């Protein structure tokens, strides 16, 4: 059938944001390919789940409903995807770069010998010419992501094997409803046709999940610190500014690795992707991995002692100076002018 399919993660009956973001992007890609956008939901008590998916442009929603399929375990979910894909032969499969996607994606691609590009920052459709083989291809999925430690941005294509598979982190793509009244077809799959009883060898006896106390992804204002902050103590300046202007504190990977901030505050290719109205980058040089996680911010202010820092090239405003000097002044003048 050669359509585009998105594996939708579900938790407590709610489709994950990353899956809805991929459906949004998938709708755009499917339009370019002139094919259908399909979604696959695996779990339990899935009646009506299509109402969450159809508004994002899905033409077909496959559901596999069985109490043994929730919560996620590797073998049965892998079997569903592998056997379904052998049947419907999608040309593209997208899934979130989550703990589930990172487990499921490689298993499926390995079984189908299809290849997989992880942690993509962009997905496009385009042609490819293999000069060595003398072949030309049309409408391939461009799987775009930083490579070689972030020194280059690689565009990866998979000319021959199908499906073309990619994982994307939450927040990288925008989530947009196509139409609240968009309607498609629901296809309920019979579990026994796709999963054998031996796949249920692992049973989840007890499951505990602690939700993150930091809501950095949804913050309208983010004050982020990098290795240039110098110390964990200096990070207190960021918390002071955040408390003053109503923002949340983020960090670059270098700052997290140095112990200046917790990992849940990490922004970038190996952290979270954010789109705040205001992003203040303090002591952040601006490596490509970090920029990938915040470049969609509406306004970017860079505070750095290095006037040639890469972050300055994407910033709307640049303040050259040390954070110890600049941040206290920002706090002082904001308080003074907000009375």
Question: What attributes characterize this protein structure?
Answer:
single chain, 9 helices, 17 strands, seven-stranded parallel β-sheet, 339 residues, five-stranded parallel β-sheet, 27% strand, 26% helix, alpha/beta
Describe the protein's architecture and organization.
The protein has 339 residues and is α/β, with parallel strands linked by helices. It is built from 9 helices and 17 strands. The longest helix has 17 residues, at 17-33.
The amount of beta strand, in percent, is: 25-35%
Give the overall form.
globular
Q: What is the CA-CA span between the terminal residues?
A: 63 Å
Q: Tell me roughly what share of residues is in helical segments.
A: 25-40%
Please give the count of helices. Answer: 9
Largest beta sheet, briefly? Answer: 7 strands, parallel
What's the gyration radius in Å?
Answer: 22 Å
Average pLDDT number: 91
Query: Helices and strands: which structural class?
Result: alpha/beta
Main sheet: strand order: 7-11-6-1-4-5-12
Secondary structure: number of strands: 17
* Elements, N to C (H/E): EEEHEHEHEHEEEEEEHEHEHEHEEH
As residue ranges, the low-confidence spans are none
Give a nutshell description of this structure:
This protein has 339 residues and is an alpha/beta fold. 26% of the residues lie in helices and 27% in strands.
């Amino acid at each position: 059938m050669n359509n585009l399919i998105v594996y939708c993660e579900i938790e407590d009956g709610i489709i994950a944001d990353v899956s809805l973001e991929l459906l949004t992007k998938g709708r755009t890609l499917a339009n370019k390919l002139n094919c259908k956008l399909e979604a696959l939901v695996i779990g339990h008590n899935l009646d009506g789940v299509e109402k969450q998916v159809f508004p994002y442009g899905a033409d077909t929603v496959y559901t596999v409903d069985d109490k043994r399929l929730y919560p996620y375990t590797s073998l049965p979910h892998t079997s569903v995807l592998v056997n379904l894909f052998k049947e419907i032969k999608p040309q593209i499969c997208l899934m979130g770069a989550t703990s589930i996607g990172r487990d499921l994606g490689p298993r499926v691609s390995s079984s189908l010998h299809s290849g997989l590009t992880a942690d993509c920052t962009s997905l496009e459709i385009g042609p490819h010419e293999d000069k060595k083989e003398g072949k030309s291809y049309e409408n391939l999925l461009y799987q775009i992501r930083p490579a070689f430690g972030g020194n280059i941005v690689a565009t990866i294509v998979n000319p021959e094997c199908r499906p073309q598979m990619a994982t994307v982190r939450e927040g990288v793509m925008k989530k947009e409803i196509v139409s609240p009244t968009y309607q498609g077809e629901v296809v309920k799959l019979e579990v026994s046709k796709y999963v054998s009883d031996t796949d249920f060898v692992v049973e989840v006896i007890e499951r505990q999940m602690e939700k993150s106390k930091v809501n950095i992804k949804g913050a309208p204002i983010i004050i982020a610190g990098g290795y240039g902050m110098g110390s964990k103590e200096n990070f207190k300046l960021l918390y002071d500014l955040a408390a003053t202007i109503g923002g949340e504190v983020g960090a670059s990977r270098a700052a997290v690795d140095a112990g200046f901030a917790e990992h849940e505050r990490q922004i970038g290719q190996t952290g979270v992707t954010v789109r705040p109205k205001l992003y203040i980058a303090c002591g952040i040089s601006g490596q490509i991995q970090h920029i990938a996680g915040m470049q969609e911010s509406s306004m970017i202010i860079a505070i750095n002692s290095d006037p040639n820092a890469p972050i300055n090239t994407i910033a709307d405003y640049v303040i050259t100076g040390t954070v110890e000097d600049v941040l206290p002044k920002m706090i002082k003048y904001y308080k003074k002018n907000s009375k």
